[in-house]
Design brief:
This protein is of the alpha+beta class. It is about 50% helix and about 10% strand. It has 21 helices and 13 strands. The chain has a 4-stranded antiparallel β-sheet. Strands 4-1-13 form a 3-stranded antiparallel β-sheet. It has a two-stranded antiparallel ribbon with strand order 2-3. The protein starts with 11 loop residues before the first helix and ends with a helix.
Length: about 600
């Protein structure tokens, strides 16, 4: 699914700023920042819905949804620009006025887009159920977990102790650390969908509760981090002028409930309720995190659902795909036969290769079990150390490889659970390899099952971003041209070629492959044959997609973009013109000063 710019820079970044305490203003700025720089009036949205009676007869009814008035404060604008400074600067450079005007328009558009999403949810045209609310709640807890990790590291640094590992303590991500493998039946028909197990409301695993697990020091660190986290979020909402009267009442009630929970059951028990979502009148919890983070995450989810609704009716004619295939395969036959260089260029790019003039390429998949940052630093230090700098190159290489192998034996791996490391299940490299081999060896004669099984193992153990959602795997050139540089680390490339020479497609390489990145568990995914592929051939032994699917995708994407552009030009532009007001004079000092 494509992502349009109007929803490409979402307000999730604002939640990170508000929660982690990014401060861009002095106290003297506060009055100026309270100015309303944009307003979206309340208006009505009508949607036609089809209703069936008991006899199966259909009637079309109009459902009217009335939006609430929305305002954008100058503080919202400044926070938005600062939180998205890198993306905005790359687009606008030194055009500060253009940057701020664009950002103001974006904030208004986000309100209008969400109005449309709310109206479609209200009339039942956009599904909004447990799947959607679970996604929001997981992301709220991702914000909580990242913030608590940051606080823990602040505590440890203050004590002169080593920080705990984290993917990126400086920013809050609302995505999981690793991708979660899509369900195999995501694209199945409605009948298959109806047979899927109903999703249950998600709750955070107890392994994440700060202060619940580990030795006394770890539990103490978790409880102290939770205390500081509670103090942090209470401070963030203490004097925020944007909080409405009803929101303030709910937040005050939650603060009281948190303190009562700490007094009666202990601070450990705050974690599983502080990220409560959806909000409920039956529970006092969740209102602070909803204001600081959940609201913007909810907006992101609604916008994604709206995009799907707008583009789900897009179709691609089979004849178009057939014509594209015929044209492309004939072009490639001519080009690649006349020039091997053209073939090499196509294989190293994003072109769908439909004709192979030779078999000089093959595909491998791998699972990367990485060195820790400390191990990488130790390896770099050893590589430059005086004890080996005067050795002959071959001897020096042997010493580095020996040291690197010792580091590899000390790598600690964690299987992934819902896209995150399961810290309760530390494993060695040998344990991971043993599990991989126990899964893959029985499938040696079944290449289709082997391919999909290794994909499952990638989602379970791998840390290389490029290996996820990569049906074919990494393409490797068997014989390089004179003077041609290696694409991959030499150890990886050597192992890949050894696999092609010595094992069958669908098998795992028996050796640990160690590079400066860590340990690679490698799998021979597929080889190529001379000649053209059929339109309905599968692209991989796992039979997940055909070349028809590959050629259809860019056509569909272009249609989806066109459908969304049409919606933008009609619905979004109309409501901006008729229901929104931008007060440029109230924020022009941001580029005039």
């Amino acid at each position: 699914m494509f992502k349009r710019i109007v929803v490409g820079i979402l307000t999730v970044a604002l939640s990170a700023c508000m929660l982690l305490g990014c401060s861009f203003f002095s106290h003297d700025d506060e009055r100026d920042l309270q100015q309303v720089i944009a307003r979206v009036n309340a208006y009505e949205i009508k949607n036609s819905v089809i209703i069936k009676d008991d006899d199966g007869d259909q009637t079309s009814n109009d459902v009217t949804y009335t939006t609430e008035e929305k305002v954008v404060y100058k503080r919202d604008l400044v926070e938005y620009v600062n939180s998205n400074a890198s993306d905005l600067s790359s687009s606008f450079g030194t055009d500060i006025e253009g940057l701020y005007r664009y950002a103001a328009d974006m904030l208004v558009n986000i309100e209008i887009v969400n109005n449309e999403a709310d109206a479609l949810i209200d009339c039942g045209k956009i599904e909004w159920g447990v799947e959607q609310t679970n996604a929001i709640k997981r992301n709220i807890y991702s914000v909580i977990d990242n913030t608590i990790t940051t606080i823990k590291n602040e505590i440890l640094t203050g004590r002169g102790q080593e920080s705990i590992s984290s993917d990126d303590d400086s920013t809050v991500s609302t995505d999981t650390t690793y991708p979660v493998k899509p369900d195999a039946d995501d694209d199945a028909d409605d009948d298959a969908d109806s047979n899927k197990t109903e999703e249950k409301p998600w709750t955070p695993d107890t392994v994440k509760w700060p202060g619940l697990h580990g030795d006394n020091d770890e539990q103490s660190l978790g409880r102290e981090a939770m205390r500081r986290f509670i103090a942090l979020i209470e401070d963030r909402v203490k004097d925020d002028f944007r909080i409405t009267g009803a929101e303030r009442t709910n937040i005050d009630n939650e603060i009281k409930a948190i303190n009562e929970l700490i007094d009666t059951k202990g601070i450990v028990n705050v974690y599983p309720v502080i990220g409560t979502y959806p909000l409920s009148s039956d529970s006092p919890f969740g209102y602070i995190m909803y204001y600081l983070s959940g609201k913007s995450i909810e907006r992101s989810q609604k916008i994604s659902s709206l995009q799907t609704y707008i583009t789900e009716s897009v179709t691609v004619d089979t004849a178009e795909v057939v014509n594209r295939y015929t044209t492309l395969v004939n072009e490639q036959k001519t080009q690649f036969t006349e020039s091997v260089a053209a073939f090499d260029t196509a294989m190293s790019g994003d072109t769908a290769v439909l004709y192979y003039p030779n078999t000089n390429y093959f595909y491998v998949k791998h699972i990367l079990l990485p060195f820790s940052d400390e191990q990488k630093a130790a390896l770099a230090e050893f590589t430059e150390s005086p004890q080996i700098e005067n050795l002959q190159q071959d001897e020096k290489t042997a010493k580095v490889n020996e040291y690197r192998a010792r580091l590899a034996d000390a790598i600690v791996c964690y299987p992934h659970e819902n896209g995150e490391d399961d810290l309760s299940r530390p494993m060695s490299v040998d344990e991971v390899m043993a599990h991989v081999n126990s899964v893959m060896r029985p499938l040696a004669a079944n290449v289709k099952r082997a391919d999909t099984a290794f994909d499952d193992l990638i989602y379970l153990y791998n840390t290389d971003p490029g290996a996820f959602d990569n049906n074919k795997g990494y393409v490797v050139k068997y014989k390089l041209n004179d003077g041609e540089k290696e694409t991959y680390k030499q150890e990886f490339a050597d192992a890949a070629r050894a696999m092609r020479d010595n094992i069958q497609v669908g098998q795992v390489y028996s050796e640990k492959v160690i590079t400066d990145y860590g340990v690679h568990i490698m799998y021979l995914a597929s080889t190529t044959k001379v000649g053209e592929v059929s339109l309905y051939d599968y692209t991989t032994p796992g039979e997940l997609e055909t070349y028809y699917d590959v050629l259809q995708e860019p056509i569909r994407t272009a249609r989806e973009k066109a459908a969304y552009t049409t919606w933008e030009n009609n619905i979004l532009a109309y409501n901006y013109k008729n229901n929104a007001t931008l007060y440029v004079d109230r924020f022009s000092n941001l580029w005039d000063d």
